[in-house]
Every structure is written in C-alpha cells, then in structure tokens.
Write a structure and sequence with these properties.
The protein is α/β, with parallel strands linked by helices. Among the domains are: 72 residues, no CATH class; 123 residues, no CATH class. The strands form two sheets. The chain has an eight-stranded mixed sheet with strand order 6-7-8-3-9-10-12-11, sandwiched between helices. It has a four-stranded antiparallel sheet with strand order 2-1-4-5. A hairpin with a 5-residue loop joins strand 1 and strand 2. Helix 4 packs across helix 5 and helix 5 crosses helix 6. The longest helix has 18 residues. The structure holds adenosine-5'-triphosphate (ATP), iron/sulfur cluster (SF4) and magnesium ion. The site of iron/sulfur cluster has 13 residues, from loops.
C-alpha cells in the first residue's frame, strides 16, 4: 500500500521496507547472493484496529512482523511507531518502546520456559522492568490469569500441565503484562486443536476491546482474517500483491494470487460461483527474484514482460491497492509515469478469456472510471 503515510491515527507505518538476508557463497559471476524476504513494503496500521497479513509459507510474514517490532533491521526503508523512527532510537528509548510492542507465537509450548511455573513465566517481563514488588507482581499475575480465563490456582503449575489452548492463554497473559499498545499475533491458533480456535480468537477479541490494543494478525486462514481484520495485505514472495480494507479485498478481490487463495477456500462465500484456481508449480526461490512481478511463474494470466517490468501498486478503489499489470484491472491512466504496460502474448490472451475477473461489468466500470 504505497500511499503517503502521515497522521496521528496510525500507530505504525512502514515506508518502502525491504529485508534481505545474506546467503553464503557467490554466484558463477562472483555476485553475492541474498534472500529477498521482504521487498518495498509500505503500509500503515490504525490504532485499535486489527491488521491482517496473509500468504503462503515463506512469503515473508514473520520477517515483516519482526521488522515492525524492531527485531529485524530493514535493509532499506523506514518503520515508524507512534511517530518515531524505530531504528533511529537510542538504546534506552528503543527498550522502552519495545515494551509497548509484544508478540505471541504459533507454538505456545516452545514460547514458554518449561522449567518456570505460571507465576514466573507471566511476571518475567515485570521482573525485568524492575519496578514492582513481589506482592504487586503476584496480584498482577492473578488479575491476568482471570482475564485470560485461567484460575489463580494455576499459578504454581508448569506449562506441561496445560493443554495447548491453555498454554496459549498463558502466553497471551505474559504478552500483555506490561500494558502494550501493539500486539503481533503470528499464527496464534494454527498449532492448536481446531476445537479451541474459536475460544482463543474470542479471547483475543475481548482483550482487544478491553485494553484498546492494536493487533497485527498473521494467518494462513482466510476465513479467520475475513472475520477479524479491518485492513490487510496479501503477500507473495516478499511483496504485497493486494492490500487495503479487508472488506474491499474480500468483496472484490482483484489480484490473480488473491483470487487463487480465495477460490481455494471453499467455506468462504467470496467465490461460490467461481471455479477454484489451482496454482501450478511451487513458490520460486526468494534468492535474487525477478525485477517485475514475483508471481509471474505461477500466474495463469502472465503477460510478456510481467517478469521484467516493475509492478506499481495502484489504488483501484478507496483503500484497495493491487500490484498487477492485468489489463482489465487497470485502465492506462492508472499506471504511473514511466511504466509501460506489458504486451499480451497470444497465450495470455487465450487464457484471459476465462479469467474470473473478466466480466463485462468490471471492464466497463474500470473503463468508465
Ligand atoms: N534469519 C534468516 N536468515 C536467512 N533467511 C531467512 C531468515 N528468516 C527468514 N528467512 C527466509 O526469508 C523468507 C521469509 O521467511 P518468513 O519466515 O518471514 O516467512 P513466513 O511467511 O513467516 O513463513 P511461514 O508461514 O512458514 O511462517 C524465507 O525464504 C525464509 O527462509
Ligand atoms: S498478470 Fe502479470 S503482473 Fe499481474 S499477477 Fe500475473 S504475472 Fe503478475
Ligand atoms: Mg512465519
């Protein structure tokens, strides 16, 4: 979402953020290789909202989240939290700011120290901050246990005494003990039994309402994202393919990748009448990806040039951005100066006739716009 970022309603803003990881060794031409985990991502997150990040495994969701909370330094770009550039803060200010940003992980058991009891796990951040007495810490732990649906009698037990869902409740209690404003939930239910998914999601929603938290919600599960997210991005191989209001994206998905993800989810009502789009091939390597569209190898509508021509993000409707050269989605006037639209091959033209986005209505409405 390459919109201009400013304004106090945004708790976190990313501007043209890229993260490259070095790869050992060189190519045949002695060029150093790198993994492009996140590339040129711009987004902004409103206070009190839930921001979704979706995409297949390895597309850069966790790297993006770790960059948001300052755990991974971007190779390029800027991350602003509450108006301050996170990577320009001195050590003391960074430490203080980090207390306002917390994270919960996919696998609660590995995020909890098995040798600690519940009291010590939950109160550890408070102990490290060093400004609470023993009694205050205990009282706060009891308060949080009740908030997350556990009992004060659980305080001396160890993580292995609990089910996965209960362990995630402990992890949630720990994550909010310092009263953060911003919580990243990295696949918070995907390692748990399906029967407890709804309970944990409801708990997160209740806590958000009570404490006024802002969430970043990372998930493979589009149905969940649809239910709980206000705004979102769909990522593929480190790039944002589509972003903006979750309602706009689910009501009117425009990117071929989003559409493939949505038509694969049979229990959403997004594409009841549309056939499932099966993407061929695997996700390509993020090592030195193409300059143009990173989705071109798997896109059923790739055009000559999609591989090489950079794809701008275009706002196709209010708060709905798409990065695709697909001709029906974008009238010529929408392309920024300096970008030539790729030319369609005969093969692409043939495939395009069956493109689920190509309805007379959509072509007309875009052309009239
Ligand atoms: N510390 C690291 N060093 C080198 N490469 C990394 C590092 N962290 C992530 N990567 C690579 O960056 C890419 C993005 O990884 P990331 O973990 O962000 O993806 P993800 O979308 O969270 O995947 P998943 O859904 O499996 O959790 C992957 O190719 C991954 O191998
Ligand atoms: S049509 Fe081209 S730009 Fe659009 S998703 Fe397919 S390969 Fe990418
Ligand atoms: Mg991840």
């Amino acid at each position: 979402m390459n919109e201009k970022t400013s304004g106090s309603d945004y708790i976190l803003e990313m501007e043209n953020v890229s993260v490259d990881f070095p790869v050992k060794g060189f190519t045949a031409f002695l060029k150093r290789q790198k993994i492009s985990a996140v590339s040129d991502v711009s987004l902004r997150i409103e206070k009190g909202q839930t921001f979704g990040v979706v995409g297949e495994s390895g597309c850069g969701k966790s790297t993006l989240a770790n960059t948001m909370i300052g755990m991974v330094k971007p190779t390029a770009g800027r991350v602003t939290f509450k108006g301050k550039n996170l990577f320009e803060l001195d050590r003391k200010s960074f430490k203080k700011t980090r207390r306002d940003m917390q994270m919960i992980f996919q696998d609660p058991f590995s995020s909890l120290n098995p040798r600690f009891n519940v009291h010590d796990i939950i109160s550890e951040p408070l102990l490290i901050r060093g400004d609470a007495t023993e009694e205050e810490m205990k009282a706060r732990v009891v308060e949080l246990l009740e908030l997350v649906g556990l009992s004060k009698d659980d305080i001396d037990r160890h993580p292995s005494d609990f089910s996965g869902g209960q362990q995630q409740r402990i992890a949630i209690a720990r994550s909010i003990i310092l009263n953060p404003d911003f919580l990243v939930c990295d696949e918070p239910v995907s390692a748990l039994d399906v029967s407890v998914h709804a309970q944990i999601l409801n708990l997160l929603t209740e806590i958000q309402e009570k404490l006024g938290l802002t969430y970043v919600f990372i998930s493979h599960n589009l149905a969940v994202v649809k239910n709980i997210c206000d705004r979102m991005v769909v990522m593929y191989l480190g790039k944002v393919m589509e972003g903006g209001s979750a309602k706009a994206i689910f009501d009117n998905p425009r990117h071929p990748y989003t559409l493939a993800l949505l038509t694969a989810v049979l229990d959403t009502d997004v594409d009841k009448e549309k056939e499932e789009i099966i993407l061929e091939g695997d996700i390509p390597s993020p090592i030195d990806p193409p300059q143009g569209c990173r989705f071109w190898q798997r896109c059923p509508h790739a055009m000559e040039g999609c591989k090489n021509v950079p794809v701008p993000e275009v706002e196709i409707e209010r708060d709905h951005y798409v990065a695709c050269h697909h001709v029906n989605g974008f009238p010529d006037t929408d392309l920024p100066e300096g970008y030539d639209r790729p030319v369609k091959t005969e093969e692409a033209e043939r495939k395009d006739k069956s493109h689920p986005l190509k309805t007379e209505e959509s072509v007309e409405s875009k052309t009239d716009a």
